[in-house]
Specification:
By secondary structure, the chain is of the alpha/beta class. It has a domain of about 220 residues: Aldolase class I (TIM Barrel, Alpha-Beta Barrel). Helix content is about 40%, strand content about 20%. The chain contains 12 helices and 14 strands. The strands form 3 sheets. The protein has an 8-stranded parallel beta barrel, surrounded by 8 helices. Strands 1-11-12-13 form a 4-stranded mixed sheet. Helix 8 crosses helix 9 and helix 9 runs antiparallel to helix 10. The chain is globular. The N and C termini lie close together (about 10 Å).
Length: about 325
């Protein structure tokens, strides 16, 4: 279990009900709104009605503060609203925010998002689009067509073109996206690959989100799907990646960032009300955690919300 440093409880603390217990401030700062729910996508790949019910349930749960956007392909926006309309109309407390994955034709995607928002706001609003862009011209064309109030995250090529693409995103005030896993071992990029992406983004002040493969807080060897005969492989941890991003922002050397990404011993992470310490030596204060979430890693997409919550509970963080 992760070491959790708390103050000695007072009589008032001991009389407080468990339901009123709050996670430590460092956990709140690091994980607020962190999980974009992508239940429509593999390996969960649930039906639209089930995904909508799940999201509505998560929004109203004790852990709703960790929930980000509902991720939906642009081709399924109409299907989404048919399943979600009744839930949205009963949920008057806040807007349902969507992250839309773009189709091949970016202009068609943007037109559909604009029409969707016009018909369904303020109850539902698609304010993010995820776009694959391997060229500067694709970024330029997308940015020029974005509707007001809609932001794009660009899943960019991470080879030799990475610096130029990240520079373009920086100049345009846009955001990046990295794929961190999938349903086969080959879908998981190396730690070096991820670190290069993160350091390039941080150097250019480009925030990013991650998607796929980050179901568990700490790096681990697990089944890659929910099938009985699922292949197993090493999966990156979302705490590893978040904290690595924080240390990258502080210009830690690459070798140490690699060690952070590949850390599998949960007991070396020490959370307190003031921040997070790794290996009893390297510290990120709550201010640093806030900056890494604002200027670094915004969120990660996961087809499961329950699995990360259960793991964090097992670690004693929730």
């Amino acid at each position: 279990m992760i070491f959790v440093s708390r103050s000695v409880p007072t009589e008032h603390d001991m009389n407080a009900s468990a339901a009123e217990a709050r996670p430590m401030e460092s956990v709140r700062v690091l994980l607020s709104g962190i999980i974009d729910y992508a239940g429509l996508f593999p390996p969960s790949q649930v039906s639209m009605p089930e995904a909508v019910i799940n999201y509505a349930t998560y929004r109203n749960s004790n852990y709703g503060w960790m929930l980000g956007r509902f991720v939906v392909p642009v081709a399924r926006l109409d299907e989404f609203i048919e399943s979600a309309r009744d839930f949205v109309s009963r949920d008057g407390k806040s807007t349902w925010h969507l992250c839309v994955t773009a189709g091949e034709d970016i202009n068609d995607t943007i037109r559909k998002v604009r029409d969707f928002n016009r018909k369904n706001a303020p109850g539902v609003f698609a304010d993010l689009i995820e776009v694959k862009a391997n060229t500067v011209s694709k970024i330029d064309n997308t940015v020029a067509a974005l509707p007001e109030g809609v932001t794009a995250y660009f899943e960019i090529a991470t080879g030799d073109a990475l610096p130029d693409l990240v520079t373009t995103l920086s100049l345009k005030g846009q955001k990046a996206k990295i794929r961190t896993g999938g349903v086969s071992r080959e879908d998981f990029p190396s730690s070096k690959h991820i670190i290069r992406f993160v350091r390039t983004c941080m150097a250019a002040n480009v925030p990013f989100k991650a998607t796929a493969g980050l179901h568990h807080p700490i790096r681990c060897f697990k089944p890659l799907t929910y099938a009985e005969d699922a292949p197993q492989g090493t999966m990156h941890g979302f705490l590893n990646m978040l904290l690595m991003t924080g240390f990258a922002r502080e210009s830690y050397r690459v070798s140490l960032l690699e060690e952070m990404m590949e850390e599998e011993f949960e007991e070396v992470f020490q959370f307190s009300e003031l921040g997070v310490k790794w290996r009893n030596e390297h510290f990120l204060s709550n201010a640093h955690l806030g900056w890494l979430r604002q200027k670094g890693m915004h969120s990660f997409g996961s087809c499961s919300f329950d699995e990360p919550i259960a793991d964090l509970q097992a670690l004693g963080l929730l």
